[in-house]
Design a protein that fits this description.
Elements (H helix, E strand, L loop, with lengths): L3 E5 L6 H10 L3 E5 L2 H6 L2 E4 L5 H9 L4 H11 L4 E4 L1 H4 L4 E2 L5 E2 L6 E5 L11 E9 L12 E7 L1 E5 L5 E6 L3 E8 L2 E4 L7 H13 L3
Parallel strand pairs: 1-2, 1-3, 3-4, 4-13, 5-7
Antiparallel strand pairs: 5-6, 7-10, 8-9, 8-11, 11-12, 12-13
């Protein structure tokens, strides 16, 4: 039997697509809003679609979920993957619809994309390159490729060593973050075809 993957259900994620993609690469997935199931999981995936504020409020509205995530991931060392706004929630705060607290696992803030070139459209939508940072080469989850993005806000990370990959949309935007057993993807692996499935497969094999 493989590792048990908890896909966190807090009313703000593209759950079925992410679940199907994880199952396609062999994961044993439980979609759950139960903190005890998160504590019992070997790996945890936090999806997220919508605004930072709505996702943060939704996550905190599930009794005991933030505490369970901290126990299992920050203290217990379980491999963790945040997807899209699920990655952004790792930040200290988000500035969408006012200032909202994040999990604070990777210091930084989530701000509106404001390109200098008026030809650059927001949201950043569609396929774009994922360029791995030199210090992150060899990371077991993040590899270069082409992925599908859809976001208007981006993660501005305090410590550049937490930036695992960038994408270019008029400027370098964070495509992936990593710190210890915590990994986050701004792109949608469940919509990124072969590259996305390969990324999820690497997450399942990751032994941080």
């Amino acid at each position: 039997m493989g590792d048990r993957v908890a896909l966190v259900d807090y009313g703000a994620g593209n759950l079925q697509s992410v679940r199907n993609a994880l199952k396609a690469v062999g994961a044993s997935v439980t979609v759950t809003a139960d903190p005890d199931a998160v504590r019992a999981a070997d790996r945890i995936v936090l999806p997220g679609v919508g605004s930072f504020k709505a996702c943060s409020q939704g996550l905190r509205a599930v009794p005991g979920m933030v505490e369970a995530l901290r126990e299992r991931v920050e203290m217990g060392g379980a491999p963790f993957l945040g997807i899209c706004v699920g990655m952004q929630l790792l930040a200290t705060r988000g500035l969408e619809h006012g200032e909202t607290r994040g999990l604070g696992w990777i210091p930084g803030e989530v701000r509106l994309i404001q390109p200098h070139d008026p030809q650059i459209k927001v949201p950043h939508m569609g396929w774009n390159a994922v360029a791995v940072m030199p210090h992150a080469r060899g990371h077991q989850v993040i590899e270069p490729g082409e992925a599908y993005f859809l976001h208007s806000y981006h993660f501005v990370v305090e410590d550049p060593h937490h930036v695992a990959a960038l994408t270019d949309h008029g400027e370098g935007l964070v495509a992936a973050v990593a710190r210890g057993n915590i990994c986050g993807l701004q792109f949608h692996p469940e919509k990124s075809q072969a590259y996305g499935l390969a990324t999820l497969a690497r997450f399942l094999e990751w032994r941080p």
